[in-house]
């Protein structure tokens, strides 16, 4: 009686073994396609590849400068008697901004004036001796005689000396060469100055330009009059609009080219401020996709397109990038649907489920 359970135990083990083997055989017979359909598709968003105009954005940084910036130079030696401006003050072209002591110049002018009068009297006296010639009709002879008498009487020298004194006197009055704001005053009233000393700078702040350095490879895409967006580093003013006003025809040692951008509505900016420019260079006949559609696999650019309910792996050749969109030179055609989300780990022929944005 005690041996009966042991007798049936091997039979039970054999039965279980064959039962498991049979179930395993049936599992292996399930088609792979059926399993793929049973797996939930990856939720993705999509967009259309479009052949259209594409704005290539060229980013560059630089400094704001006044369109006109003139250094006021003192032209003669003397004491700075008056200084009629302060830094930041607006002045008009021709306005008197400083005055050198001109006491000696005034005396020299009076002296030169007396010498001129004496020389004029001598000239008139000598001229009386040639009344017949001056009353004649030989104009060439009269002209030559006048020049000789002016020289011999000292009238010619006196006239030149008076002009020199007047020019020296005019240098004592320092005037604004252009309209603008005064900056960097370097001399105080009462100082002894010399010819060539810098008094201040005058900046034409009503017309400002941003000068930026652009890669030489981007220069073919830039032209005069092109629209640019300018973002001051200081912030607060938002973005400003501008137009390309100049392109330096020389490349520097770093492979950069200076580009000038004339600003509009820049009343809150000051020369010397730092700013960033974004120059728009429209490109035509480009296949464009959202930048999110591009991923890299083993260092190569890939864009997944939608084929029914599956993803399709496409190696692509990329062109320019404007931060939001990217140009596709080869690998994706106009009108194809590209996958723009959950594509970092996506595989070829993977099941996908298209959903709307923000879902």
UniProtKB/TrEMBL annotation:
Residue ranges of every copy of the Multidrug resistance protein MdtA-like barrel-sandwich hybrid domain listed in the record: 69-202
Similarity section: Belongs to the membrane fusion protein (MFP) (TC 8.A.1) family.
Protein name in the entry: Efflux RND transporter periplasmic adaptor subunit
Gene3D superfamilies: 2.40.30.170, 2.40.420.20, 2.40.50.100
Ranges where the CzcB-like C-terminal circularly permuted SH3-like domain occurs: 287-342
InterPro entries: CzcB_C, MdtA-like_BSH, RND_pump_MFP
Superkingdom per UniProt: Bacteria
Stored SUPFAM superfamilies: HlyD-like secretion proteins
Alphabetized NCBIfam families for the sequence: RND_mfp
Pfam families xref list: BSH_RND, CzcB_C
């Amino acid at each position: 009686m005690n041996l009966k359970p042991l007798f049936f135990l091997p039979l039970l083990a054999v039965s279980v073994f064959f039962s498991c083997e049979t179930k395993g055989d049936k599992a292996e017979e399930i088609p792979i396609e059926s399993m793929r359909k049973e797996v939930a598709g990856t939720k993705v968003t999509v967009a259309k590849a479009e052949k259209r105009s594409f704005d290539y954005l060229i980013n560059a940084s630089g400094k704001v400068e006044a369109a006109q910036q003139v250094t006021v130079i003192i032209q003669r030696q003397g004491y700075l008697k008056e200084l009629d401006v302060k830094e930041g003050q607006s002045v008009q072209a021709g306005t008197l901004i400083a005055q050198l002591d001109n006491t000696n110049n005034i005396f020299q002018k009076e002296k030169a004036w007396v010498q001129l009068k004496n020389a004029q009297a001598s000239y008139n006296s000598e001229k009386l001796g040639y009344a017949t010639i001056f009353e004649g009709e030989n104009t060439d002879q009269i002209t030559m005689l006048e020049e000789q008498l002016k020289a011999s009487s000292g009238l010619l020298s006196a006239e030149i000396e008076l002009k020199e004194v007047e020019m020296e006197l005019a240098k004592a009055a320092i005037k604004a060469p252009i309209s603008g704001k005064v900056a960097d005053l370097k001399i105080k009233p009462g100082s002894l100055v010399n010819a060539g000393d810098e008094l201040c700078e005058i900046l034409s702040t009503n017309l400002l330009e941003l000068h930026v350095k652009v890669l030489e490879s981007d220069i073919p895409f830039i032209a005069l009059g092109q629209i640019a967006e300018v973002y001051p580093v200081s912030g607060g003013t938002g973005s400003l609009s501008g137009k390309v006003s100049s392109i330096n025809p020389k490349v520097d040692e770093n492979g950069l080219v200076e580009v000038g951008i004339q600003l509009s509505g820049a009343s809150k900016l000051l020369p010397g401020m730092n700013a960033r420019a974004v120059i728009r260079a429209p490109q035509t006949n480009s296949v464009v996709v959202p930048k999110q559609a591009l991923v890299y696999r083993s260092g190569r650019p890939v864009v997944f397109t939608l084929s029914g309910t599956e993803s399709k792996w496409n190696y692509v050749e990329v062109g320019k990038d404007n931060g939001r969109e990217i140009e596709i030179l080869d690998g994706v055609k106009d009108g194809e649907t590209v996958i723009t989300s959950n594509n970092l780990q996506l595989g070829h022929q993977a099941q996908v489920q298209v959903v709307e944005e923000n879902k």
